[in-house]
Amino acid sequence: MAIILGLIGLSALELHGNLSQTQRIQAFLDFKEEKCNYLLATDLAARGLDIRDVQTVINFELPTHLTKYIHRVGRTARAGSGGTSLTFCNQQECL
Known about the structure:
By secondary structure, the protein is an alpha/beta fold. Helices cover 32% and strands 17% of the residues.
């Protein structure tokens, strides 16, 4: 996804478990310092990171637990601010 966004001129960073801790910290700091507009993350970013002014969260799969989903979409509502959350799912996931 980061490659596709890059090909259309959008800057994106990745944050996932296959990165070293140093790489994860750097991606997080670069996103937080607005060096990049998009952060593509696994559940690694669902909790414990303080990122202000996140405007949109897009889920490409539903988490298995409701609390994980709430933490993910809650990224857009820090300190009373608003945002948008979008989730892609198939019919079986939504039941």
